[in-house]
């Protein structure tokens, strides 16, 4: 059985809208996948501002943005299909852009109304993948582990370095997964804040760097031990999974520590790199006390391209851990690929969310489906 599906993902670091057109094939119970076309659509400045400020909007304005962002996604899909001459996009599975994620309070919200997307494109549009799991007392995240299990099962661990670091692996015959710590969500904002808020010569908005290329800025700094200790002492890191993070947690826990710190910018940035490396490798120290063989870690997400960050992660790795970085398509579009796959599982009415990863009452099949047709 073969399926075509298009997956969409917008990360919290506002890198852009990832679109991946994929083919999936199931043979004798084993899934095979191929990314046929993929592209990241950079957000125009007004959309980047809208998404970054969405959590502050009054309710009616947020609902309006929910629909207008769905229409924006629909337009981007039409352009993507036209550019790549795609006549059959298959199932369209959209994660949307997370604005609120408070599973402990019983809700999660991703911008990008499925009906607004379906009003512009033909076929089945699946969105709102997280809500059912949250309603079942789960974290609603991470959702990628079912893809890790069925598409990338040859690796011992699947680590994603995006806005947040998350990991999945098999433990006691189950797929477990959880968020580890913020990564690009914090690093990118530290860089933006530094260049936008310089009192002596603030950079024009169009000249503000969006990230720390290759980790060059962090490489110039030194570790501030007081800040590092404070970061590593946050209570979240003592919790056992399932557990997940969102922008609200960063606002409440990470930024206050930077505001209290007297370290200069490059030292703060360098310290945060070591914090990320420490928290990632702590997972392996906890899971593997005496590894009987080398363990392979598949690393994807934008953090793969940060040379200094990967250097710090590798330097702090425990013995017999090998970090494997795949081809660029997999690095950049693994999450979009997996959401396309979640859409396929949703259409097949098969489990696409694992309770062992989210802590929900049961495995479930999330996603709301709307069938659209192109506008006249």
Overview of the structural elements:
The protein is α/β, with parallel strands linked by helices and 376 residues long. The protein folds into 2 domains: 2-139 and 333-372, ATPase, nucleotide binding domain (Nucleotidyltransferase, domain 5, 2-Layer Sandwich); 164-326, 2-Layer Sandwich (Nucleotidyltransferase, domain 5), CATH 3.30.420.40. It is 39% helix and 24% strand. The strands form 2 sheets. Strands 1, 2, 3, 4, 5, 6 and 12 form a 7-stranded mixed β-sheet that branches. A hairpin with a 2-residue loop joins β8 and β9 (174-182). The model has no long low-confidence stretch (mean pLDDT 92).
Short account of what is shown:
The protein has 376 residues and is α/β, with parallel strands linked by helices.
Count of folded domains: 2
CATH superfamily of the largest domain: ATPase, nucleotide binding domain
CATH hierarchy class name of the largest domain:
Alpha Beta
Quaternary arrangement of the chains shown?
single chain
Number of strands: 12
One letter per element, helices H and strands E, the order comes to EEEHHEEHEHHEEEHHHHHEHEHHE
Low-confidence stretches: none
Helix content: 25-40%
Radius of gyration: 20 Å
CATH topology of the largest domain: Nucleotidyltransferase, domain 5
Structural class by sheet pairing and helices: alpha/beta
Separation of termini?
Answer: 33 Å
The main sheet comes to: 7 strands, mixed
Task: Please report the number of helical segments.
Answer: 13
Mean pLDDT over all positions: 92
The global form is globular
- What's the CATH architecture of the largest domain? 2-Layer Sandwich
